Automatic annotation (TrEMBL):
One of its GO terms (molecular function) is metal ion binding. Transmembrane segments: none annotated. Pfam families: Creatinase_N, Creatinase_N_2, Peptidase_M24, Peptidase_M24_C. This is Putative peptidase. The lineage of its organism: Bacteria, Pseudomonadati, Pseudomonadota, Alphaproteobacteria, Hyphomicrobiales. The keyword Protease applies. The keyword Hydrolase applies. Residues 325-538 form the Peptidase M24 domain. Its EC number is 3.4.-.-. Residues 548-609 form the Peptidase M24 C-terminal domain. Residues 17-138 form the Creatinase N-terminal domain. Keywords: Aminopeptidase, Hydrolase, Manganese, Metal-binding, Protease. One of its GO terms (cellular component) is cytoplasm. Belongs to the peptidase M24B family.
Length: 611
């Protein structure tokens, strides 16, 4: 099994652990310490040995920062995790902070005491973060203290070891472009910019450049590794040889020198010697690494990770692979939803739902000779009030049955060698209320608006985000997460820089894969989300237009619960899209399904709606 449902949060220890942390402040000459949910590689998913925020507070969400001062302990989270935070931490020790509207640097500028000295682990903060903190502290006469070690690591006596997941080659039939070609493109760009080298600090970029995958962290198949690519065409890959077998080592030897991670600092200093200019992405690279360059006499040339945008713009092989993975995943989802429709309310629980879906994905993968490699994130399996927790993670303690008259939300994804999937479906258990149906239909309207959007080149994610919200806004409600995130190609299910959100200024380019997932959540009552993956493509000219346009192509095929839709609340165009989507879903998935009952369910689930 890929997902554990045991309780991993430790709120009962929060008071003692915060007290122990504060006891170290005098020796470190600090008044506060920041604990981000991050590892030395700045990834979203981190190995068990880097779950410092969870160990300290009990909060297990994928984004957050704790600020512990001598008298306060604040955990900053975004809107997805407000409810989860309140349930997981000891509220007599920790208070909640707003990671979006008043993140730690803003909180310090507004509330920090005069002369406050804040300690950080320089490996867990990017250069951009450090600058924001330094500026905020300067406003209150304070200072940022870069510590030589992380004080939590001395307190965490049973800290797990660092991972040694095995590395695999991502063959050209999945990658589409040779690693040597990717390296050559990067080195040519470095030469034109008079840069000596580029530091590749993001493990997903390392995996994409070298066409390798790994198993170091849950659900994201990249190895924890860094690289230096030189303007002269050479490359050093800092990857523990305990992770690579003979085949992988022979493959890598064709394009780079594989070195132990412990050699990185020495090599980086050597590149920086005599004023060498090194390209560093300030948003993805630890402050500690940039400081190594500066202290060696080099120049940090800040710029985008050279793989970030090329990795986001998928080539035809990657798009076709993703499409194939989504058809396979759609067949598994249909089998799962058919099974759910045959269960009686009150007889299955949230954990059983997640386990069943994972088992079906595994079985379908074996039958189609494209095995399930992993889930792409911990499945969100929430019934009733739990569905209102945007990133709810069911445990043996919170597990409950699916009861009649409520909504069930399941947000899940899979990792296949040819693509990464992410899909959310909300279904009614038995007869549900008209209110459930009304809000489901409003969410559906937003999802359709994104699916059918046509937009000029240069359009950004923030320009499209309102389309998903207008119907909800008219009803006086909204949702506290972005409409869509980027998705990798057998890599991270959350990939930048592409997004559809209020904050995204990245231009949407053909080949980018994104999620389309508006929702509505009523705390303590119910939650709704409908999610498909889409990709940007050139749009055909219609209605005599003379301007090049872009649009989206849908990758995900799986029925949307038609029993929750109020047809009269859809426009004619929206109803036409809905029925057309179901027709395409039926045509695409029916050949992949062999069970008579599942075929019959799919036929019924995709019947057209009428006014």
């Amino acid at each position: 099994m890929f997902q554990s449902f045991e309780v991993t949060s430790t709120p009962q220890f929060g008071r003692d652990r915060v007290s122990a942390l504060r006891a170290s402040f005098d020796a470190l000459d600090i008044d506060a310490f920041l604990v981000p949910r991050a590892d030395e590689f700045n990834g979203e998913y981190v190995p068990a040995c880097a779950e410092r925020l969870s160990w300290l507070t009990g909060f297990t969400g994928s984004a957050g920062v704790a600020l512990v001062t001598r008298c306060e302990a604040i955990v900053f989270v975004d809107g997805r995790y407000v409810t989860q935070l309140a349930e997981q931490v000891d509220n007599s020790v920790f208070t909640g902070g707003d990671l979006v509207n008043e993140p730690p640097h803003a909180w310090l500028a507004n509330n920090g005491s005069r002369g406050l000295r804040v300690g950080i682990d320089p490996w867990l903060h990017s250069g951009a973060e450090v600058r924001r903190l330094e500026k905020a502290l300067a406003e209150i006469g304070g200072s940022l203290v870069v510590l030589p070690h992380n004080p939590l690591d001395k307190l965490w006596s049973d800290r797990p070891p660092e991972p040694l997941g095995q590395v695999m080659i991502q063959n050209i039939v999945q990658a589409g472009v040779l690693a040597t070609e990717k390296i050559a493109t990067i080195t040519a760009d470095l030469a034109t910019k008079n840069l000596k080298a580029a530091l590749i600090a993001d493990p997903s970029s390392v995996a994409w450049i070298f066409n390798i995958r790994g198993t170091d962290v849950p659900h994201t198949p990249h190895p924890l590794a860094r690289a230096i690519i030189y303007a002269d065409g050479n490359a050093d890959l800092f990857l523990d040889k305990r992770k690579t077998g003979i085949e992988a080592e022979a493959y890598l030897a064709q394009m780079c020198v594989q070195l132990p991670p412990s050699e990185l600092e020495k090599k980086l200093a050597a590149v920086a010697k005599d004023g060498g200019k090194v390209l560093v992405d300030p948003d993805l690279t630890s402050y500690a690494l940039a400081e190594i360059i500066r202290k060696a006499g080099g120049e940090v040339a800040e710029g985008n990770d050279p793989a970030k945008l090329p990795r986001a713009v998928k080539n035809n092989v990657e798009i076709n692979g993703s499409a194939a993975a989504h058809l396979q995943d759609g067949a598994a989802m249909v089998e799962f939803l058919c099974w759910l429709s045959q269960t009686k309310p009150g007889t299955v629980n949230e954990i059983e739902m997640a386990q069943k879906l994972e088992a079906v994905r595994g079985r379908v993968g074996e039958s189609m000779q494209n095995p399930l490699k992993d889930i792409s994130f911990d499945t969100i399996s929430g019934a009733g009030e739990h569905a209102a927790i945007m990133h709810y993670r069911v445990t043996t303690e919170t597990n409950r049955n699916l009861e009649a008259g409520e909504l069930f939300l399941i947000d899940s994804g899979a990792q296949y060698i040819n693509g990464t999937t992410d899909i959310t479906r909300t279904v009614g258990i038995g007869a549900v209320t008209e209110e459930h149906k009304r809000f489901f239909t409003l969410v559906l309207k937003g999802m359709i608006q994104i699916s059918t959007a046509r937009f000029p080149k240069g359009t950004r994610g923030c320009d499209l985000d309102p389309l998903a919200r207008i119907a909800l806004w008219r009803a006086g409600v909204d949702f506290a997460h972005g409409t869509g995130h980027g998705v990798g190609s057998y890599l991270s299910v959350h990939e930048g820089p592409q997004r559809i959100s209020r904050l995204s200024t990245q231009e949407l380019l053909p080949g980018m894969i994104l999620s389309n997932e508006p929702g509505y959540y009523r705390p303590g009552a119910f939650g709704i989300r409908i999610e498909n993956l889409i990709y940007v493509r050139e749009a055909e000219a219609i209605d005599g237009g003379d301007m090049p346009m872009l649009g989206f192509e849908t990758l995900t095929f799986c029925p949307i619960d038609r029993s929750l839709v109020i047809p009269e609340r859809l426009t004619h165009d929206e109803l036409r899209w809905f029925n057309g989507y179901h027709e395409r879903t039926r045509d695409a998935l029916m050949p992949l399904i062999h069970d008579h009952d599942v075929k019959a369910w799919l036929e019924n689930a995709t019947l057209p709606l009428e006014y």
